[in-house]
Amino acid sequence: MDLTPHLPALQVIVPMLCAPLILLLKPRGLAWAGATAVSLLTFAIALNMALVTADGGFFSYEMGGWEAPYGIALYVGAFSSLILLIVTGAGAAAMIAARPSIDRQIEAERQPLFYSAWLLALAGLAGIAVSADAFNIFVFMEISSLASYVLIAGGPDRRALPAVFKYLIMGTIGATFYLIGVGLVYMMTGTLNLADMEARIGEVTDINPILVAAGFITIGLALKAAVFPLHVWLPNAYAHAPHMITVFLAACATKVAIYVLIRFDFFVFQSNLENHDLQFSLFLMPLALMGILVASAVAMFEGHIKRLLAMSSVAQIGYIMLGASFISQAGLTASAAHMFNHALAKGGLVLAIAGLACHYRDLRLDQLAGAARNMPWTAAALVVCGFSLVGVPGTAGFISKWLLIDAAMDQGRFAWILVAIIIISSLMALAYVWRIVETLYFKPAVVDAAPAEAPLQLLLVTWLVALANIVFGFFPQFPLALSSAAADLLLRYTL
Description:
The protein is mainly alpha-helical.
């Protein structure tokens, strides 16, 4: 039996159906093994679809044989495939590496519930990427959000509880804005299918409710994506979550929201609303530029390494939104490529930090002084991923930042201002990454720790991700093919 046509459905169904089964695996080792096997399977499914869509192919699936717009439709193109690769790849890497860290942070009797919530979050994020229906995007968004609240609050750090509460409030506001916008579009078009929405909006005589809907959806999703200044929930949520959850969320959670934002604005609104492309650009470009500069500046003076990387994520989200705001082939390619490359860099950085946390309870920079002498391999992997985050030549991060600079050069009289901001912010990233390097390698130790590396399982995955940053720095053809195909698909719908 050929399962290829069913891959979009399997991408969601496999982790969703396996999540409750994990609860039955009471020995913690079995629960971890089961969740790991499911995560690897979802990654294999995503990779299979990515190989097809990189060459211009796509997957279209109708649940129960009901044709859209009457039934639930799933669609996977190049852009969806890229997001699925990020989500499932981050989930698989974090899950393989998770056991040593989770054993330290989560009680044995709660681990099956923890892994079950992890798979639900994975299913929710994958469901957002494959859904071709606006309401089902909301459903999967809430599944992933609720599971994320459980995961963040499930660690030993009690500071996670107020962080989760803030995340809950802000996430609920964002979801409510999105739902109001979708409701307005449904009121005017009578459909929830995205392709059908795009076709019917052009027939609407009173366009004002659609304009209001576009505003609600854009702001709601920008809040979910932690676009500056709507990022206030992110630093504490990432800093106080269990380390492996930070890996998972930092690599992919906000990118899925960005994907939905871009998908709505390009697929649904820009082909129907006059000057919407200009409005989209004028709204997001200033926020992106402020986010890049302000978040980078805050990161330069942050004393806690996980909060530092959280603020760095806000800046990197700014890069992604900046590329999208150009409304060009080069800009969208750079934006999509940076989603992939940032996931590699930030995922590797947080994995290395999880390794440090095995022997250093306090992750403030002043408490990590001299850690490289005790954990040289862990520190070296952190440096490699940090250089990729900065955009040092020979790393994956350099490719997407170079593409972004190239795209910025086509922006007329503001080109040099945009290029200057990108270069200055990269130097700021170098400054805060160098603070970490200087602390680990050149400052005298303040904590008396015996020389001991991170657990081998965690260390191997960390170095696998670190080496991937180098490999994709020299051989970026595959992610660039997906990114370019995604840009072509998005621009097909613009005015």
